[in-house]
Amino acid sequence: MIVDRAVPTYDFQILGPFRVCRDGITVALPARHPRMLLAVLLLHNGEVVAERRLLEQVWGHGSGSTIALRTAVSRLRSWLRDKAGAVASIEHVDSGYRLRLPPRFIDAARFRAALAADSDTAGLDPHQRLSSLMGALEQWYGSVLDGAPDGVREDPAVRALDDDHAMCLQRLAALAISVQAPELLLPRTRALARARPFDEPLHTRLIELYAACGRPAEALMEYERLRSRLADELGVAPSADAQRAYLTVLDQDPLGGFERVHGAGWGRTIVPHQVPADTADFLGRDKAIAVLLDHLGGLLNDPAWPAPLIAGVTGPAGAGKTTLAVHVAHRLAPMYMDGQLYADLRGTGNAPESPARVLGRFLRALGVGKAAVPDDLAERMALYRSLMNGRRILVVLDDAVGEAQVRPLLPASSACSVLVTSRSRLVGVSGAKFVDLDGFDTDHAIQLLAAVAGHERVIAEPDAAAELVRLCGGLPLAVRICGARLAARPRWPLAALAALLRDERGRLDELSIADLTVRDGLRHSYSRMNEEVQQTLARLARLGPVDFTIGTVAAVCGLDHDSAGRHLGALVETRSASVVDNGQAGQFHYRLDELVRLFALDPRA
After folding, report:
1. How far apart are CA 483 and CA 494, in angstroms?
2. Nearest-5° angle of CA 549, CA 552, CA 553?
3. In sequence order, which ranges of 426-529 are alpha helices (DSSP H)?
4. 3-state DSSP assignment of residue 445
5. What is the pLDDT of residues 535-577, one digit of tens each?
6. CA 201 to CA 238: how far, in whole Å?
7. 449-463 residues labelled b (16+ CB within 10 A) or e (exposed)
8. Phi, psi of 96, deg, nearest 5
9. Which parts of the chain span the membrane according to its record (predicted)?
10. Residue 506 to residues 463, 541, 598, Cα–Cα distance (Å)
11. Given this structure, which CATH class describes domain 301-433?
């Protein structure tokens, strides 16, 4: 079948922004409701579309009426008579409407005709097929009815056209590879694949296009992105077709692909630099920095030190553990000339990372081709330690949940060092040096607020600034959130935000902006307590911001002395409570963290 590509007298375009042209000149579309009515009818040209469906898509649920629909149809008919003459008409059939328009005047119909023609003539010369399908692809100028309301774009016919578009690109990709012209389709296939993240056939063709263009590393990375996305979002593995494409690339790329990205193919040792960027407005923590630098840097050249140096940063949620660890890692970079590995262990999330998965990423970063990474955890650990032996590499393990997660990731070489962050001390990790973080003192908290919100504003309202950081308990995350909220509203007085935070019932709700929120970290710590400790925390929270002893816990919660001590120990371990002083006769006094106390009053919020 030969498709006429000449510009029709009339051209109704829905494969992109909605347009209507006459003799190549764009004509003004009717008002909103008649225009969207026409769009829906074009999607179903020649079919009866029920009135109820038209009302739902054009006006929205429960918004339109039969009278409004008939009025819009009448106006659309007048517009069609004026702009398209006798070419198009709208019929009322039973309880619906049907548009009659020759298919050659609709870009979607011409596109589908070319696609069907290719199916009918699949045995043609690939160059002819490529030319024909490229003509079909030229009908597309964007997504279907780009800019139309969601009600219209959610029509199943839109999804069907999108699927046909992807099918066309898949055929074209295969044809382009067969005629050795993969560059012709790579940009458009890549763009559509980004818009269809779970379209495995399309992503498979993209992998093949990358490989055919001589870009195996990008082909392997594309497969890895697809594999991770399917595993994380759907819990499934890539299709057999995608896996075949991946293995084909590996066979053609003896280095396994990853080395070429980092230049190992040119005879250089891979030097990973995985630590995230340092914080531009980092301040304070001088004592903690000195301890970490002294431990991880000062002992590095000691020939008598028999094991890797291990340091840890502990503290409550929002204390800035990750920020400190990243800052120290950058300070230590010159001493670890063989690189830095970094892993977010997601210990405070619902699904902590498995050591096997992290080791797989570390091995690939150290130059092991993906196909050469062992499946067995013990084999991964052995290969990891072999590759790390004798190399000066700093391993940063962020947000660890416990010792069992960390131990498999520890190198054996004394030339390496490890920096771990965790909510609690990992006492089972031998030889580790830990620093504990609490909230900022008032001066450092105000400096952070000024760095984020603006120094002039803080100087202008010193009392309000001091009150803000006090209400935040000096917690860096809470102070940063306040600064960000103020920065987003340049004319908002600091006193106004302080007034909102004074209300204990709403303070945690106010300490939130974008993806930063204090409540999430508190919720995770709370979820790690058993139910009895949670009940103890709730009873202590109702006492208010006061100091208490083990005797107080026992009396308020109806516990014996030993049980009260265990509950209090759990609260201290999760950084929900802290020691205030040792009181008289060695009796320790404790206090709940203020934000923890507010959370415990209503943990379900």
Report:
1. 9
2. 95
3. 442-453, 455-460, 462-471, 476-488, 494-502, 507-510, 518-527
4. helix
5. 999 999 999 999 999 999 999 999 999 999 999 988 988 888 8
6. 10
7. bbbbbeeebbeebee
8. -155, -175
9. none
10. 21, 16, 9
11. alpha beta
Cα 524 from Cα 551, distance rounded (Å): 28
Q: How many other C-beta atoms can be found within 10 angstroms of the C-beta atom of residue 280?
A: 6
Helix ranges (H only) for 472-517 are 476-488, 494-502, 507-510
How far is 107 from 113, CA to CA, in rounded Å?
10
Q: At what angle do helices 200-212 and 216-229 cross, to 10 degrees?
A: 160
CB atoms closer than 10 angstroms to residue 71: 13
Residues in the chain: 605
Q: Would you say 74 and 52 are in contact if contact means Cβ atoms under 8 Å apart?
A: no
- Tracing tokens 């089972």 back to the chain, one arrives at 428
93-104 b/e (C-beta count within 10 Å ≥ 16 → b) = eeebbbbebeeb
Instruction: List, for residues 16-27, the tens digit of each pLDDT value.
Output: 999 999 888 889
- Cα Rg for the chain, rounded, in angstroms? 32
Pairing of strands 89-93, 417-422: unpaired
Instruction: Say what the pTM is.
Output: 0.54
Alpha-carbon gap, residue 339 to 319, rounded angstroms: 27
Q: Quick one: fold of 180-253?
A: 1.25.40
180-253 and 301-433, same CATH topology: no
Dist. CA 92–CA 73, nearest whole Å: 10
Nearest to 1 by CA among 108, 119, 169, 166: 119
Average pLDDT over every residue of 1-26 = 76
For 223, 567, 573, 584, the CA distances from 543, given in Å and listed in that order, are: 56, 16, 21, 22
Residue ranges of domains in the chain: 1-176, 180-253, 301-433, 442-514, 520-601
CA distance 90 to 17: 22
Question: What is the DSSP code (8-state) at residue 602?
Answer: S
Q: Using CA atoms, how far apart are residues 48 and 91, in angstroms rounded to an integer?
A: 9
* Cα–Cα distance measured from residue 324 to residue 319, given in angstroms and rounded to the nearest whole number: 9
* Nearest CA-CA partner of 343 in 320, 371, 324, 362: 362
Structure tokens at 466: 């001091």
Burial 176-201 (b: 16+ CB within 10 A, else e): bbeeeebebbbebbbebbeebeebbb
Q: Is the pLDDT of residue 124 over 80?
A: no
CATH 3.20.20.140 fits 1-176, yes or no: no
- Amino acid identity of 548? F
**pLDDT of res. 574:** 82
CATH code that applies to domain 520-601: 1.10.10.10
β-strand pairing of 512-513 with 394-400: unpaired
